[in-house]
Amino acid sequence: MERAEVGSHGALMTFDQFADIFRDVASLGVVRDDFHRFDDVVTAKLYDLLLVAQESAAAQHRHIVEPTDLPITRGLQENIGLFRELGPSLRVDPIVERLADYPPLDGILATETRSGLPDITGGLSVALARTFRTVYPELRTVRARTTHWSVISTLVDLYL
C-alpha cells in the first residue's frame, strides 16, 4: 500500500506541542522545518498501527477495530505514559483529519479506539524524540535539512 505524499490536511498537533515534547523528553531544540518531517513520520507510524489493528479485527471476523487490536508494545506503552505525564492535550479530530491523507481503512474504529488516538500519537512522538536523543546524543537542535531525519525515519520503520 502506498504512503500518502504531502498531505492536504492539517497536522497532528501544534508546532509548540511538538517543540515541547522534544525539549522535555530529549532536551532537543527544533525548528519549524522539522515539524513537517515529524508529522509525516508519526502519521505514517500511526497509520501502520491502524492497518495491523484492522488485520487483527478481520482475523477475528470483525469490522470494528477495538483497542485490543492495536499492536501496542510495552515500549510504546511506556512512551504513552511519559506523554501523559508531560500533560499536553491532543485532539482527536486533527489526527483523524491527518489520517485522511492515507487510503481509507476497511474497518471502522470503535469509539474507544478513536478516543485513544491522541495518546498513541503522543506516545509515538515521545518515542521519536527519545530515538533522536539515543542515536545522536550530542545533538542540540534537530535540523530538517540534515540526514538525521532520514536515519531516524528508517529506524522507526524497523522497530515500530
What does this structure look like?
With 160 residues, the chain is mainly alpha-helical. Helix content is 61%, strand content 2%. The chain has helices at residues 15-26, 32-59, 74-86, 92-99, 111-115, 117-135, 148-159, and strands spanning 64-65, 108-109. It has a two-stranded parallel sheet. It starts with 14 loop residues before the first helix and ends with a helix. InterPro entries: DUF1931, Histone-fold. It holds the Pfam family DUF1931. GO terms for molecular function: protein heterodimerization activity. It comes from Rhodococcus wratislaviensis NBRC 100605.
Write the layout of secondary structure elements.
Blueprint: H1 15-26, H2 32-59, E1 64-65, H3 74-86, H4 92-99, E2 108-109, H5 111-115, H6 117-135, H7 148-159
Parallel strand pairs: 1-2
Helix pairs in contact: 1-6, 2-6, 2-7, 3-6, 6-7
Protein name: DUF1931 family protein
Organism: Rhodococcus wratislaviensis NBRC 100605
Pfam family, one: DUF1931
Structural shape = elongated
| Overall residue-averaged pLDDT value | 91
Query: What is the name of the CATH superfamily?
Result: Histone, subunit A
CATH architecture: Orthogonal Bundle
- CATH topology: the name is Histone, subunit A
Low-confidence stretches: 1-8
Q: Biggest sheet, in brief?
A: 2 strands, parallel
Question: Could you say which structural class the secondary elements and strand pairing correspond to?
Answer: mainly alpha
Binned strand content: under 5%
Q: CA-to-CA gap between the ends?
A: 17 Å
Question: Helical region count?
Answer: 7
Q: What is the radius of gyration computed over CA atoms, rounded to a whole number of angstroms?
A: 15 Å
> What is the CATH C-level name?
Mainly Alpha
Number of strands: 2
Strand order of the largest sheet: 1-2
Number of self-contained structural domains: 1
What letter string, H or E per element, gives the SSE order?
HHEHHEHHH
- What does the oligomeric state look like here? single chain
Instruction: Give the % helix.
Output: 55-70%
